[in-house]
Each structure stands twice: as structure tokens, then as C-alpha cells.
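Troubleshooting entry. Yesterday's outputs looked truncated, so today I'm pasting the complete records for two proteins to confirm everything comes through intact. If either block looks cut off, that's the bug. Protein one:
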Amino acid sequence: MQQGYATQTIGDFEFIEQGKGKAIIVLHGLMGGLSNFSGVLNYFSNNGYRVIIPVLPLYDLPLLKTTVKEFANYIDRFMKKLGLEKAILLGNSLGGHIGLLHTKLYPQNVEALVITGSSGLYENSMGDSYPKRGDYQYIKNKAEEVFYDPKVATKEIVDEVFDLVNDRSKLVKTLAIAKSAIRHNMAKDLPKFKVPTCIIWGKNDKVTPPEVAEEFHKLLPNSSLYWVDKCGHAAMMEHPDLFNEILMNWFKESGI
């Protein structure tokens, strides 16, 4: 999952860390390796931020604890272990949802929130198509649908998803996470949020379509919404330079 990055461990926590300054904790998605955020990691760690990407224990916990809430609690324990009082949370897909729920449960921990292609309001195709898990071409097609440009779904990415859905234990936990995400709908909670939130969204996202971003923007009182054209579910992968530019500008405008 680390795909070329050297991780470090403190206690039970495994993570990548680069740079010095204000902390950005990056939260990966259900199918997302840490390398999905290489652009964010390299850019912000070289521009005055301490970027930390924990390996979330998506498949390491008992089944009953394989929930969005447990992952949100995990981030609180992780921050305490690192001695971090506050951090910016940046999450894609499931990672965005974990960031949102963490912000609800531990608002004192969160200086700012950045979500892109986040679950939490609406799920599309999370866990609905795994019966065909033995069919590599089918999995390849599903992986390509995540992006505007299907070439972004490299063989490495497709192989990782294929291996995951063909591992019975991981498949069961993937479905448990998907059900937990649906249960933890955030619509009623978001209007109470005070944290500044940056929403960066692909205009061509098929997993969490553009109307989901508009709904997040409407419900979150202190939010800014930015669109990335010709972009699917993972803006930080398809358009890393533009993603970083939007986010850095937002940091500067928000004094973060």
C-alpha cells in the first residue's frame, strides 16, 4: 500500500511524515493507497507544512469495530500519540467522511477541513458490484470509472483493487465499511460545524457526483467550493498541480 514510500511507526501507528510547520493529516480512501497523495505530500512539505499520512487500519480491526466512527476515534489517538493539539484534516472519499466525523466528535482537534470526493452524504457504487469479483476486466472497468481519464487507473491500481476484492476477509470488511458509511450520514450534523472547510471537487465525479459537493457547500456554514474540470473522484491524483494551487490559495485567504 505504501508503494515506494518509507513509513515509520510509533506504537501501533504506521505513517509517512514529511516537512515542518503546521500539521496536515491526510486521510486516504477505501481503495486509495498513500501514493495517491504524493503530489500533496511533496508540495506542501516543501512549502511550510508538516504533512502526515497515517495508514488507516481498514482491515486490521475486529469486524464489529470496522466502522467510520472507529476510524475517526483512531485519528484522535494518533494525534495524541504524536503530541498534536490541532491539525488540518484532508480527506478523499472515505477519508473525507472520516475527517467529517472526526470534526463532529473532536472539534477541538481540527483547525481546518479539506474534503474532495467525500462520502458522508451520498454513496454510489460502494459495495454494490463485488459479486463479479473474479472478473479482472470488470474490476478494471470499475476502477477506470473513478477517473475522468481512465489511463490514471494504472495496472498497479487495478491489481490492488482486484486483490482486495478477491480477499474474502478484506471484502467482508469493505462491505462493513460501506454499510457504516451509509449509516453515518452527516446531513444533520454539518450545519453545526464551525471549522473552515475547503471543498475541492471533480466536475466529472461519477462516485460522488457534483450535486454532492453543492450539498456539502450548502450545509457547511463556513465552506468554500472549488471545481476541477475534466476530473473524476480523485482530484489530487488527476490534477495534482491545480489541486495544490487551489488549496494553497485557500490556506492563504483563510490565514491557515
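Protein two, checking that the full record survives here as well:
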Amino acid sequence: MAQVRIQESASVRLDEIYHYTRDRWGEAQAEQYITGLFASFGKIETHGVTSRPIPALFGVDGYFFRYERHFVYWRRLANGDIGIVTILHERMHQIDRFRDDFGL
């Protein structure tokens, strides 16, 4: 079974999500949201989340799915593992942030 690997950009985004949620709604809510995100990562391999291909205009191969107010972008790594590339809030300008996180 494939391992889930959190890429650097996704790690930064997870920290941002945690801190924002904690500061706005408290520690318990931040823990619950991050735990839910990680649970959704674990469902990628078994198709427990519905992933769609990243639109061609983004210029990369990969997939995304929605978790509550965020979009999780991932791709299959060369060794078969799942790489969580970035996590973007629904209000973020997806293409600009996506390109930053993918280094495009």
C-alpha cells in the first residue's frame, strides 16, 4: 500500500491552517480540523475521497479533492507513494498559489 508523503509546501500550509484555526476558533477545533485532513489523506489510496484530475491550465499532472473549506492537491510519486503537494483554502486564488507551491 502506498505511503502518504507530505511535501514541503503542504507542510507549510498545514501549519498555517492549524495556527489560523487555533487563533480563530480554539485549540480543540484546530486539532479536529487537522486530524480530519490527515484522515482524508489516508482515504486517497482506497478512493474514500473523490479526486479529480488537476485542470490542464495548471500545467502539472496530479489530482485534487475538497475537504471542507480546502482543496487538497496531490500526485503519485515515482515510487508509487502519494505526495500531498499543497492545501489551499477555497477563497485563495488557486492558480497563483498552486504555481507558487509547485515551483512553477
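Both blocks look complete. Sanity check on protein two: The chain has a mean pLDDT of 89.
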